Amino acid sequence: MTPGDEFPADLLPDRARSFAYEVACSFRVPIELPAVSILAAASAAIGRGLRIQSTPDELMHANLYFLGAAKSGDGKSRTIKQVAASILDYQKNAIAYWRHETEPEALAERKLLEVEIKKLQGLLSGRKPALIVDRGQIKADLRDKLRRLKELEDDLRSPQYIVEDCTVESLAPALAANNEEIFSLSADAGKVLLNLLGRYNKEGEIDDNFYLKSFSGDHHIVNRNSHHPIILNEPIMSLLWLAQPDLLTRVFQNTRLLVGGLLARCLSFDAKIEPTEIPKIPRRIDQQVKTEYHDRIRELMDTYLRRNSSLRIPDSPEALEVIRCYHNTLVADRLGSLADINPIVARWHELALRLAMVLHTFIYGKNAHQFPVDEDTARNAVSIIDWFAKQELHLLQPSREAQKEERLNRLIRILQQRYNGRAPIRDLGLRNGFERDEIEQLVKAFPARIAIKTTKNPQGGRPSDVVHVL
């Protein structure tokens, strides 16, 4: 990947593309950062309110995970704040309404219920023996009031749609109290990534299971020591984390995150932020472009966020055919040169469909559920995913090289200890777990250490390909 491989912003719908360029010019940041942030904001604005039939038996949401490398001090926080302003205002207004209306109303009702419950309990206490008590009716009344008291707990929790440096333990109740949809947004995700790597749990183990469930909307039960378990039926999370490049490199070197699947679900990228000079006359963001972008984000939130049931995009056969063909073009590489990162490559076509849904909503806004995703939108999504693929391959290169060298050293040990320095490829595959494709890749990567030579069979059979230690 060369420095000139910038994000293909021209493939974005008009409102997204125009605003991305405006923010990039005004804040003097590469187009990657505002463009990706805009996609994350739109994904979050949709929440769990929109789905598409992805296979005959499955429906897919439009939530996406983005993970970016970005240096501090040169516009990343300002960019995110500008792009996510509508969502931040949405949360701010929701909290203000809750403080002035919902919370006082809930507190008042709770007080009344507590008094009424106390009266009912008094009737059962035996202090008024002359009073004829219908125990069945009192039990029913108590049950209803206690149930209502339990329901008020949600009204007494402040609404929260955006979380930042959040632990898994606090994510579950936040999702449960907010329609099982949330946006994890952090311009400096160092703490949350360290938490993910296990720094803050007692066992020091990778703790990504909750993020995996919340990406796919899978049923999840969170057991807690001192409280009732939290049952999440279909949790949906959108995510945008930016971190220092060295920390992101460390994350990509973690085998558990690669094999376990979290990184496979993330669209990762390098924001390429570098220091720039401040011009004498700073450039302002065009107000009309800004207004049109935020109007679209607010429209998506008003239509799809906090819905009791998701709306469905009409069947989109042309778009699904594009995604199917994209999947099929990846199969050969997944079996060959990219076999070592197959879990990541296996998700690219799925992420392309999710991204196509996001692009689709920018085009149709509140009417996105009334129109199918068209073929051009799907093709644009695939091209954008190809850009992310190059980014991820670049980020993965150090860990892939280290893994290849580890496999090479194991192969050489086997050859030296069991075969006196050389062995047929067929034998290495049958008895030692080294298939031909992997051996050929190791020979290509380390030509000075091992080689494949064709040896004639002295008994007149077919010649054998033999691996030699050099």
Can you give a write-up of this model?
With 470 residues, the protein is of the alpha/beta class. The chain has three domains: 9-87 and 176-400, Rossmann fold (3-Layer(aba) Sandwich), CATH 3.40.50; 94-155; 419-469. It has 18 helices and 13 strands. Strand 12 (450-455) and strand 13 (464-469) form a beta hairpin. Helix 13 (317-335) runs parallel beside helix 16. The radius of gyration is 28 Å and the shape is globular.
CATH class descriptor of the largest domain: Alpha Beta
Determine the structural class based on helices, strands and strand pairing.
alpha/beta
CATH topology of the largest domain: Rossmann fold
Question: What is the number of strand segments?
Answer: 13
In brief, what are we looking at here?
With 470 residues, this protein is an alpha/beta fold.
Topology:
Layout: H1 14-27, H2 32-46, E1 50-55, E2 58-61, E3 65-69, H3 76-83, H4 85-123, H5 135-155, E4 162-163, H6 168-176, E5 181-186, H7 190-196, H8 209-216, E6 220-222, E7 230-232, E8 236-243, H9 245-252, H10 255-260, H11 262-265, E9 266-270, H12 287-304, E10 311-312, H13 317-335, H14 342-345, H15 348-364, H16 375-418, E11 422-424, H17 425-432, H18 436-445, E12 450-455, E13 464-469
Parallel strand pairs: 1-10, 3-8, 3-9, 4-5, 5-8
Antiparallel strand pairs: 1-2, 6-7, 11-13, 12-13
Helix pairs in contact: 1-2, 1-12, 2-3, 2-12, 2-15, 4-5, 4-12, 13-15, 13-16, 15-16
